[in-house]
Design a protein that fits this description.
The complex is a heterodimer of chains A (about 260) and B (about 220).
Chain A (H helix, E strand, L loop, with lengths): L1 H33 L1 H12 L4 E7 L2 E7 L7 H18 L7 E7 L5 E8 L17 H13 L2 E11 L3 E10 L5 H24 L7 E7 L5 E8 L4 E6 L24
Parallel strand pairs in A: 2-3, 6-7
Antiparallel strand pairs in A: 1-2, 3-4, 5-6, 7-8, 8-9
Helix pairs in contact in A: 2-3
Chain B lengths: L1 H22 L8 E10 L1 E7 L11 E9 L4 E9 L16 E8 L2 E9 L5 E10 L2 E6 L2 E7 L5 E10 L6 E11 L4 E3 L6 E2 L4 E6 L2 E6 L2
Antiparallel strand pairs in B: 1-10, 1-13, 2-7, 2-11, 3-4, 3-10, 4-5, 5-6, 7-8, 8-9, 11-12, 11-15, 14-15
Classes of the chains: A alpha+beta (about 260), B mainly beta (about 220).
Chain lengths: ~260, ~220
């Protein structure tokens, strides 16, 4: 009788252990699924050289924090773009992650200098592409000539078949004028003007299936004035500009009150 | 040497302006505005309509929008129409039919999103509103779009027509139910900060209801 009870007790303990194991495994797996999106995105960002201070899930939203410096930094533009795209790619892959994305950029003192919030719109990662041999050769000479007429020096112009982001056109230019209207005209050409020429060339005859255009404008002394990234499929533009530079690539310039703000009644 | 350098500079500016015109980029002349402002506000919204016939924009760009304004930083939503020659920041041309957009500049950071066209004789409600911690959200026809910040809130808010690149663009936009948000709720614009740079022109029925137009 005693022996029977012991056997029964052992069986019960074994059954309970199995149930506990199954429960633990199931809970663990749920937790892994919940953490999936941020983990994957964090890993993807790191693999692409983007060092996020933190990547996490908060109330159904994916939160990414970047550390920068006062006034921001040129590389923030590329980082912001890649974060948006990775969130969309992971969402499209069926990962039960977030539906909202938040990006916070902090300066050295921990002050928020940029905050973005918005829905994640799932989209498939671009398929792997080869770097076309003739690439941008056909337009480089013409662009250099145009740049020269404006006092702009066209630096590098390249096409990169990036394994993660697809085909990326990367261009850099240096402006030579001092701050003022002439430099603004040069920056305008080196951003939206140059971009327009590149897009006409690449997309006009379906020559190249470009996924991103990335432009950098400096002052000729290595100081970056503008970093500029365009995602042609989403018709979105992200840019960073140094202090003293205004977004001259956009005609839209909201205005303060003529004569300054008025006091509230 | 000095006059020679100055002459060279003038030549480059002239040449730049010529090439920019050839590229369809506008010269960097200041834009012109019509509409009304409210200071301060935690949000601004307006029903902004398109005209019943297609505006003729043969030179330059027109924006009809609501916006906040914080020392050169802003978030705005509205409809835009270009001449088919001026480049939009994404390197394509500004749409030749009225189309919705959202644009933001926060200190050194800039963002632009271009959306669908807005039919003729059609009204969409455009809104930018503070959602907390200095972050403001753009809302178009009830659809929550993107949020940007931080802004020193509350800010100056505005509902304006802007023409840029040329005084030519024809436009007509009705601004109805123009409202600012106080701490908790929306109220009709209540300040006389009316502006018309002639062009564009404006006829005001009240501080919160007006038509902005040029050439039509």
């Amino acid at each position: 009788m005693k022996h029977r009870r012991l056997v029964l007790l052992s069986v019960c303990v074994a059954v309970l252990a199995v149930i506990a194991g199954v429960l633990a495994a199931s809970l663990g797996s749920a937790s892994a699924e919940t953490a999936g999106a941020d983990t994957i995105i964090g890993r993807n960002l790191e693999a692409q050289g983007i060092k996020a201070t933190s990547v996490g899930l908060q109330e159904g939203g994916l939160e990414v924090t970047l550390s920068s410096r006062k006034g921001g930094a040129p590389e923030d533009t590329w980082a912001r773009t890649v974060i948006h795209r990775e969130a969309a790619f992971v969402a499209a892959s069926g990962d039960p992650g977030a539906t909202q994305l938040g990006i916070t950029i902090l300066d050295e003192q921990g002050n928020v200098i940029y905050r973005y919030e918005g829905p994640i719109e799932p989209r498939a990662r671009p398929s792997a592409k080869n770097n076309p041999l003739d690439g941008l050769v056909g337009i480089e000479t013409d662009l250099s000539a145009q740049a020269q007429k404006l006092g702009v020096v066209l630096g590098s112009l390249s096409l990169d078949a990036d394994a993660s982001q697809g085909l990326v056109v990367d261009a850099s230019a240096s402006v030579t004028a001092s701050p003022g209207e002439e430099r603004d005209l040069q920056i305008q050409w080196a951003t939206v003007g140059l971009l327009g020429e590149l897009r006409d060339y690449c997309e006009g005859a379906g020559r190249l299936d470009v996924d991103l255009y990335r432009l950098t404008v400096d002052d000729g002394n290595g100081n970056v004035l503008v970093s500029y990234v365009v995602d042609p499929r989403t018709r979105s533009v992200r840019a960073w500009m140094a202090s003293g530079v205004t977004p001259v690539w956009s005609q839209s310039q909201p205005a303060g009150l003529p004569g300054g703000p008025v006091a509230a009644p | 040497m000095r006059p020679r350098t100055a002459g060279k500079g003038v030549l480059v500016v002239l040449l730049s302006a010529f090439i920019m015109a050839g590229l369809g980029g506008s010269a960097l002349a200041s834009p012109w505005y019509a509409g009304n402002y409210r200071n301060p506000g935690y949000g601004v919204k307006a029903d902004i309509s398109t005209p019943s016939s297609m505006p003729s924009v043969t030179s330059g760009v027109v924006f009809n929008m609501v916006s906040n304004y914080d020392s050169g930083s802003w978030i705005q939503v509205g409809w835009v129409q270009g001449d088919g020659a001026a480049r939009a920041p994404d390197g394509t041309y500004w749409p030749q039919v009225p189309s919705s957009y959202e644009e933001s500049r926060v200190s050194g950071y800039y963002d632009l999103y271009l959306y669908s066209s807005q039919p003729l004789n059609y009204t969409r409600t455009y809104e930018v509103v503070h959602t907390g911690s200095g972050t403001w959200q753009g809302i178009i026809a009830g659809t929550r779009r993107y949020s940007f910040g931080p802004f020193s809130t509350p800010t100056l808010v505005e509902a304006l027509t802007e023409i840029a690149g040329s005084t030519q663009p024809h436009t007509r936009a009705g601004f109805n139910n123009v409202q600012f948000k106080g701490l908790y709720s929306y109220m009709a614009f209540d300040q006389n900060n009316e502006r018309q740079d002639r062009p564009p022109y404006a006829t005001f029925t009240s501080y919160s209801r007006y038509n902005c137009y040029n050439g039509m």
